[in-house]
Design brief:
The protein has 493 residues and is α+β, with helices and mostly antiparallel strands. It is 56% helix and 17% strand. Among the domains are: 3-161, Beta-Lactamase (2-Layer Sandwich); 316-492, Heat Shock Protein 90, CATH 3.30.565. It has helices at residues 3-58, 69-82, 111-115, 156-206, 221-230, 232-277, 282-312, 324-335, 356-372, 389-398, 436-441, 448-458, 484-492; strands spanning 89-93, 99-102, 122-128, 131-142, 145-154, 320-323, 342-347, 351-354, 379-386, 407-414, 464-468, 472-480. A 5-stranded antiparallel beta sheet has the order 2-1-5-4-3. Strands 7-9-10-12-11 form a 5-stranded mixed beta sheet, with helices on both faces. The longest helix has 56 residues, at 3-58. The relative contact order is 0.07.
Length: 493
C-alpha cells in the first residue's frame, strides 16, 4: 500500500477512534449523571415512604401487642394510593422476608430483598421487559416488628435519552469523518512528493553512491528528514571507520592479553627449564616447583581477572590485609638478579588493604614499563612509604573517606626517555603507545597502564604520573593502610 493511502487510512482510524471514544465518554457521562440523580431521588422517596409507614403504624388502634399483617397491607395500600400518577410501585415483606403486600406490576425477584439488612438502604438498577427501574429497599421498625420496604422507580427515560445521544453522535461522527478524509487526502498528496524524492535517494545509496544528496523542497519535519538523509553518507563512512577500528582494537586486545601472560609464563618456563636441564638439590627443586605452581595459579587468576576487568569491568577486588614487605619480596624474586637493569627497592613496613594478586599485577606492569623506557643498565627505583598527611588527606576527601585515615604510597621511578606533557593525559588509554616503534620492539602493546588504571579504580585509587622528557618518569599510587587491629592480626599470623 502506498504511503499516502496508509497515511489517509491511519488518520481516518485515529479520527474515528477519537470521535467515538470522546462521544462515548460524553454521552455516558451525561447518562451517569442523570442516573445518579434518579438513584438519589429513589432513595429519598424510599426514606419518605418509610417515615410515612412508621407514622401511620403509630396511629393504628392497639388491639394486639404487635402490628398485624392486615394493618401492614392497609398502610401499604394507602401509601401506594397516595402516590397515584407518580408511577409508584412498592412491596412490603415481613421478618422472614415473605411478601405481605405488592403493587400490581411489582414482579421483580427477591435478590435485593435477600441482601437487605436492618437500618441500611440498598438499591439496584434492573430491567423489566422494555422498561428500566431503580429498585430500592430499607428496613421499617413499626410497633415491635421489623418489616422490609421495597420501591420501584421507572427510569426508562434516562436510558432512552442515552440511546438518542448515541444516535446523534454517530451521525455527527460520520459527517466529521467524511470531511476529515477529504482534507487528509489533499495533505497526503502534498506530502508524498518529498517522500518520493527520498525514495529515489535511498535507491542511490543502496547502489553504493554515498555521495548522492536528496533535493530539499520544504523546511518542515520532512525537510529536516532530508537534511538528516544528506548527512547519512558521511555518518555511514564514519561508522565504517569505527567498525574497522573496533576490529583492530580486538586484534590488539588479543596481543595485549598475550603480553600480560608473558611475565608469569617466562618465569614458569625458566624454572622448568632449569629443573630439566640440570640436577638440583632437594631444596632448590622444591623451591622451583613451588614457584612454578604459585605462578601457575597466579596466571590462572590473572587471566580470568584480566578478561573481566578489560571486557566487562564488573569484577570486584577481594580485599585483605597484606604486609607491604610481602609485595616487595615478590618483586625482588621477580626482578632480581637482573643483569640488564639496576633495581633499588626501598620499603617502609606497613600493612595495606588490597587484593594481592591485582596489586602485584599493577607493580609488575609499572616496573616492566620502566624497563622498556630505560636504556640497559639504567637505575629503577621502587619505593613504598607512608604517604604525607596533606596528600593522604586530599586523597581521602576525594574518595569520601575520613581524612585521618592513613595511606601508603607505592612508586616506580625510571631515568629513561620520559613522556611529553601533551601525552600524559592519553597514556592510560587502552592500546595507546607514546613511541610505537620503541614499544613494539620491546613487545609493548599499550595495555599495561590501562590495566593498572582499572585495577586501581577497584581499590579506590588512581595513578599519579610525573615525567620530564629525557629525564625519566615517576608513577605512583596510594593504598589505604589497614587498621591497627588488622595489622596486629597480620603480624601475629
Amino acid at each position: 500500500m502506498r504511503f499516502s493511502r496508509k497515511l489517509l487510512l491511519w488518520t481516518t482510524i485515529i479520527i474515528a477512534l477519537t470521535l467515538g471514544l470522546s462521544g462515548f465518554y460524553f454521552v455516558n457521562y451525561v447518562f451517569r449523571t442523570s442516573l445518579e440523580r434518579e438513584i438519589g431521588q429513589a432513595l429519598d422517596e424510599n426514606s419518605i415512604l418509610r417515615f410515612a409507614f412508621e407514622t401511620a403504624a403509630l396511629n393504628v388502634p392497639l388491639k394486639y401487642d404487635l402490628l398485624q399483617d392486615g394493618s401492614v397491607e392497609q398502610i401499604a395500600s394507602n401509601l401506594e394510593t397516595s402516590g397515584q400518577g407518580s408511577g409508584r410501585l412498592l412491596r412490603m415483606s415481613d421478618e422472614e422476608k415473605q411478601p405481605l403486600y405488592a403493587s400490581d406490576g411489582f414482579e421483580t425477584d427477591g435478590v435485593l430483598l435477600e441482601q437487605m439488612e436492618e437500618n441500611r438502604y440498598s438499591y439496584r438498577v434492573i430491567r423489566l421487559g422494555e422498561h428500566y427501574y431503580i429498585q430500592t429497599g430499607s428496613s421499617v421498625n413499626a410497633l415491635g416488628r421489623v418489616l422490609y420496604l421495597e420501591t420501584l422507580r421507572d427510569v426508562s427515560q434516562v436510558f432512552e435519552e442515552r440511546d438518542t445521544g448515541f444516535t446523534v453522535y454517530r451521525r455527527l461522527t460520520v459527517l466529521m469523518l467524511a470531511l476529515g478524509i477529504g482534507i487528509m487526502y489533499f495533505i497526503a498528496s502534498r506530502l508524498t512528493k518529498p517522500i518520493r524524492l527520498l525514495m529515489k535517494a535511498t535507491k542511490e545509496m543502496a547502489g553504493g553512491d554515498y555521495s548522492y544528496r536528496a533535493r530539499q523542497i520544504s523546511t518542515d519535519e520532512l525537510g529536516q528528514l532530508t537534511q538528516d538523509f544528506n548527512h547519512m553518507s558521511e555518518e555511514l563512512e564514519k561508522t565504517i571507520g569505527q567498525l574497522e577500528e573496533e576490529v583492530q582494537s580486538r586484534d590488539e586486545f588479543v596481543g595485549a592479553f598475550a603480553h600480560e601472560l608473558k611475565t608469569p609464563l617466562t618465569s614458569i618456563i625458566g624454572y622448568a627449564d632449569m629443573m630439566r636441564s640440570r640436577r638440583l638439590d632437594e631444596e632448590k627443586s622444591f623451591r622451583s616447583a613451588n614457584y612454578i605452581y604459585t605462578e601457575g595459579k597466579r596466571l590462572e587468576t590473572m587471566s580470568l581477572r584480566l578478561l573481566d576487568i578489560m571486557v566487562t569491568k564488573k569484577v570486584g577486588a577481594k580485599m585483605q590485609s597484606i604486609p607491604a614487605e610481602s609485595l616487595f619480596e615478590y618483586l625482588r624474586t621477580m626482578f632480581l638478579p637482573n643483569e640488564g637493569m639496576e633495581f633499588d627497592f626501598t620499603c617502609e613496613q606497613a600493612v595495606v588493604t588490597a587484593d594481592p594478586s591485582l596489586i602485584q599485577t599493577v607493580l609488575v606492569n609499572l616496573i616492566d614499563n620502566a624497563c622498556k623506557a630505560s636504556e640497559p643498565g639504567s637505575r629503577i627505583e621502587i619505593e613504598g612509604r607512608i604517604a604525607a598527611d596533606k596528600f593522604a588527606g586530599e586523597q581521602a576527601e576525594e574518595e569520601n573517606n575520613e581524612p585521618e585515615s592513613r595511606w601508603y604510597r607505592f612508586s616506580v621511578r625510571d631515568y629513561g626517555i620520559g613522556i611529553p606533557e601533551e601525552e600524559l593525559s592519553k597514556i592510560t588509554q587502552a592500546f595507546y603507545m607514546v613511541d610505537k616503534s620503541r614499544s613494539r620492539s620491546r613487545n609493548g602493546v599499550g595495555l599495561g597502564l590501562a590495566l593498572c588504571t582499572e585495577i586501581l579504580s577497584l581499590h579506590g585509587s588512581r595513578l599519579e604520573i610525573e615525567s620530564v622528557p629525557g629525564q625519566g618518569t615517576k608513577v605512583g599510587f596510594l593504598l589505604r593502610e589497614a587498621g591497627k587491629e588488622a595489622q596486629h592480626e597480620e603480624i601475629d599470623s
